[in-house]
Amino acid sequence: MIDPGRMGEVATSYGREVRVGAVASHSALDIFDGAVTEGFRTVALAQRGRDLTYRKYFQAHRDANGAVRKGCVDEVRTWDRFDALLAPAVREDLRRERVILVPNRALSSYVDLSEIEENLDVPLLGSRALLRLEERSEKENYYALLGRAGIPHPPEVPDPDRIDDLVIVKLPHAVKRLERGFFTCASPEEYRAKGAELQRLGVIRPEDLRQARIERYILGPVFNFNFFYSPLAPPGESLELLGVDERRESSLDGLVRLPAEQQLALPLRHRIPEYTVVGHGTLTVRESLLEEAFRLGERFVEEARRSHPPGVIGPFCLQTCVDRDGRLYVFDVAVRIGGGTNIHMSLGHPYGNTLWRVPMSSGRRLARELREAIAQERLREVVT
What is the pTM of this model? Predict the structure, then answer.
């Protein structure tokens, strides 16, 4: 693991003219919008063929005084592959240009995690050590952390022959490796039948199915809690809830919009939905649930600090289901800016706005933390 102290020294050497960079995908627009709002210039690290969103349609236009009048992306650097940013010359250039990277899921998806941990010697605004927790195939994953923290999560079913209730089987898509090949079932027979059909259709691979996680399916609505933890805040004020979102998944959302009679009339290949996340919607939560959500957030932060120092820095997301008795179960975790934060960029979100009394998105809150760290000469506490 790259020494956080070394990255702190690099970031401190930048002075006050820091630039905010991110891999140009996932939640990058929220990152760039928040950075520009807080007075930073931005750098999008893009892949050729996927760069026009940032290069053309959200390009920043500034007046003679440098104030942004339109857009939020000041500069786009484009390569054939995202992981080209690992090249020594590119890393040196990013440091020379005083870039601090904000890790999003695109970074840890398109760039090998070991390379991020050991060779990407550009300061990250957030915790480098926690990114690997999101990999379900790792022994030390977010399920292990949730268990130690005493955070409720769906129980694992260790063997397909022990399925006796509704479960979800979690594994990657056979072709779209960064997407989900998930499916649900309620018996060993249904598990085998659906597994065989999805393999026939080329949706999942047999080797992935053998290593899949099977867990109880919690019936209830999904709430993704977008938290923020500030190492700079006074005691008792470090944990904030900025927003709540829900996923839009294809082809699941299209399927459930059909009447049951039409669903049953579909060919089997259409009755087994895919769970590819294609968008997000904004939510608020019944206020009687908020205190429990904060409790789970506090437990997560405490355990992450103990097991993966320095622990959480900045945004993280606890993805939950709420059962019929109002109990929250965490079924997924993002230990960086979440995928759904674009829903409240620019306008903020009711919770972040209520707390800060100005429009406060996740991207803006992160940029404000960076600005405060620079002003207080505490950059070493927020970069790794």
Answer: 0.96
